[in-house]
């Protein structure tokens, strides 16, 4: 049987040692991986809670299991906090990751074989934006746009490809791009060809929440994000919309559950609620302002060897990465 004083130390010392060394590594090293961050003690508390024991297939008030009255509170709080934080009218906090959030949007809005238009992997896009190894490149006719000579998104190319191929969905957002994206321009192009606009703001959602990077919510049909990058939350995903389109919202709900997932991770959803509430605090905005300032110092601070290794790197940045 279990007891409250059980620990990994003494039970599996090899595993415990690896965990302790990872803590030391994170504390002693400066982490320059833009997709990583440090979850707060409150987030870690929620993730390690007994909510992990609860099965809760379905949505608040409409579960397939009994005893969900308290996890319903946690999920509703996460939804309400995210709506307030991002100005969304629809939120789904059940996706287990950013990729699963994107997969749900694909399942909801396009069919296998449909044409999609996304940023190429070598230009800074994500695997789920149409790269060949991904479901998005295998099951859909994926057309890719890139950057111009100034290493900026080539909006003329986006428009030209959209007019030529008539995609059912255009994907804006990135995995490695350091400048401001013109969300309104993407929506203009999408409307011209009758396409849905999906924005993946995984890398900048914390900046968006703090108001230091333009929000895509007023422009996109659907927005997805991870919650563990600049948001400093648990490793997970979220889907948002401010489109006020009941049909889209219904399709998204069904695509997440039962379309792509079964039971939600209620301990992680509780951690998302913590994350979203923490992001409403004034100190979070101060933190994000510093996040944007720091990478702008890299050209001055980094050695000549590093800048020589990356000759195409932009000289300036408007986000958290360089």
UniProtKB/TrEMBL annotation:
Main localization (coarse): cytoplasm
Cofactor(s) for this UniProt protein: pyridoxal 5'-phosphate
Signal sequence bounds: none
Location of the protein in the cell: Cytoplasm
GO molecular function: glycine hydroxymethyltransferase activity; pyridoxal phosphate binding
Keyword entries, A-Z: Amino-acid biosynthesis, Cytoplasm, One-carbon metabolism, Pyridoxal phosphate, Transferase
Span of domain Serine hydroxymethyltransferase-like: 11-298
One Gene Ontology cellular component: cytosol
A single BP term in Gene Ontology: tetrahydrofolate interconversion
InterPro entries from the UniProt entry: PyrdxlP-dep_Trfase, PyrdxlP-dep_Trfase_major, Ser_HO-MeTrfase, Ser_HO-MeTrfase-like, Ser_HO-MeTrfase_PLP_BS, SHMT-like_dom
Keyword Ubl conjugation included in the entry's annotation: no
Pfam families registered for this protein in UniProt: SHMT (PF00464)
PANTHER family hit by this protein: SERINE HYDROXYMETHYLTRANSFERASE (PTHR11680:SF50)
Family to which this protein belongs: Belongs to the SHMT family.
Binding partners and assembly: Homodimer.
Protein name (record): Serine hydroxymethyltransferase-like domain-containing protein
């Amino acid at each position: 049987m279990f007891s409250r004083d059980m620990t990994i130390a003494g039970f599996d010392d090899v595993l415990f040692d690896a965990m302790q060394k990872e803590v030391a590594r994170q504390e002693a090293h400066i982490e320059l991986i833009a997709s990583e961050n440090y979850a707060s003690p409150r987030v870690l508390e929620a993730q390690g809670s007994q909510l992990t024991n609860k099965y809760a297939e379905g949505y608040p008030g409409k579960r397939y299991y009994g005893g969900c009255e308290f996890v319903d509170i946690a999920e509703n709080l996460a939804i309400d906090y995210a709506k307030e934080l991002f100005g969304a009218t629809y939120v789904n906090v059940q996706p287990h990751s950013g990729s699963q959030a994107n997969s749900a949007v694909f399942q909801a809005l396009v069919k296998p074989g449909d044409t999609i238009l996304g940023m190429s992997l070598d230009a800074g896009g994500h695997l789920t934006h149409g790269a060949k190894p991904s479901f998005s490149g295998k099951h859909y006719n994926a057309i890719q746009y890139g950057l111009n000579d100034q290493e900026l998104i080539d909006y003329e190319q986006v428009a030209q490809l959209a007019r030529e191929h008539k995609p059912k969905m255009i994907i804006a957002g990135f995995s490695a791009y350091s400048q401001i994206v013109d969300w309104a321009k993407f929506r203009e192009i999408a409307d011209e060809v009758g396409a849905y606009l999906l924005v993946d703001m995984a890398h900048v959602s914390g900046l968006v929440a703090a108001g230091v990077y333009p929000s895509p919510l007023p422009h996109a049909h659907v927005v997805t994000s991870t919650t563990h990058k600049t948001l400093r939350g648990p490793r997970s995903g979220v889907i948002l919309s401010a489109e006020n389109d009941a049909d889209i919202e219904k399709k998204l709900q069904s695509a997440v559950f039962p379309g792509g997932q079964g039971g939600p991770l209620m301990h992680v959803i509780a951690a998302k609620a913590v994350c979203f509430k923490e992001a409403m605090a004034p100190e979070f905005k101060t933190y994000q302002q510093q996040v944007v300032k720091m990478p702008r110092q890299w050209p001055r601070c980094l050695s000549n060897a590093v800048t020589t290794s990356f000759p195409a790197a932009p000289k300036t940045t408007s986000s958290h990465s360089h």
